[in-house]
Amino acid sequence: MSYRIGGPGKSQMLQDLKLSHVVAGAVAVLVGYTGSVAIIFQAIDTLGATQSQANSWMLVLGLGMGLTSLLLSAWHKMPILTAWSTPGAALLAISLHGVSMSAAVGAFLVCGLLLVLTGITGWFAALTRLIPDSLASALLAGILFQFGLSAFAAAQSDTALVLAMAVTFVVGRKWFARYAVPAVLCVGVLWCAGSGAFGGLAQLDLSLARPEFVWPSFSWPVLIGVGLPLFLVTMTSQNMPGVVALRANGYDAPVSSSLTVTGLATVLLAPFGGFAFNLAAITAAICAGPEADDNPRSRYLAGVMTGVFYCLVGLGGATVISLFLIAPKALIATLAGLALLSTIGNSLSAALADAEGRDAALITFLVTVSQISFVGIGAPFWALIAGLVVHHLMRWQPTSGPVTPTPAKANSTPQPSETRLRDAP
Fold this sequence. Notes:
This protein is mostly helical. It has one domain (10-346). Helices cover 68% and strands 1% of the residues. The protein contains 19 helices and two strands. The chain has helices at residues 10-16, 19-47, 51-76, 86-95, 101-121, 123-128, 133-153, 159-175, 180-195, 220-248, 255-269, 282-288, 300-316, 318-325, 329-339, 341-352, 358-370, 379-395, 416-423; strands at 82-84, 277-279. The protein has a two-stranded antiparallel ribbon. Helix 3 (51-76) packs antiparallel against helix 13 (300-316), helix 7 crosses helix 17 and helix 8 packs parallel to helix 15. The two termini are 41 Å apart.
């Protein structure tokens, strides 16, 4: 079942807003930043950016994700979340050595224009419709699997914290399912505060970020070596899983308009450090699943709250980022894994429900979990390719040649079985 555009007005939105929407948005932002902010810092360091330029990057990345998530979620009435391109940031961290900031900005602009062109033409939306639902669910389960695994692996380093959060989750699912994840967050924070697990306050950076414009320059080697790969990695490793995350939760994702909006955001914010925006997958799964809201038609409010929090984080600049960085890794890993547990289970169930397509779904899941990478393209893309090949191979039937009819005898008498069939009413 798919949920399409349509929903209540502003006053109804406020009436429908729940604590679970606010918590889901906060958890999504927490996971989004702590999961990959270090990679952004590596890319900034590779470029040799100044401190003011680094602050500008974090400012516009937060505002870009916030405004696009808020706009798309509110307009389409779906939990459509956006994110910076984490694989793109990893690509930048290894490919920007010796590249000037202005040339890098030129590559970001070209990537943004390609994203806009992809959204306007609609070819990517048509491509996603060719993916069977079972493969989409398997791909999402594989993407989120590492987060679920990390929740329990964290018990190796911080057994007491993880155990307290896990017990709270199980009890919450039994007695107050809607507030299970908020309770887990509260217990985790209180436990860390009481045990002194949070890092020292000396690490806090109280400076305010300001946008800093960099004039772009265009160099063919940089455009081909950075801009084009950035576009390809963003499309295959980010936008495709983002579409899958929405589809797996029953939403008919507005792919073309989403790509157009994120592409325009990239073009507008590239001179300030917004290198690439795309559909989110992991954080979208947090807001699109049943933990955010029992009613799938009002889950979009979790996307709206995520957008609000992203904007606040961006405006807070380095201060809020440093707050995320002092949080214990076990707290973030356990919170993310438990918040995604229902989505992982639902996705696996949907992927394996069809016995005929089970082999293709399993291969898609396992290739995704393997985290392999070829030619700079991550496992989700190759998992999808492998799953589609197996899916169509298992359903392929060789075309038989024409059958030559056997001539009937002139005075043949119908067999008894034939007579009964003919005479039957």
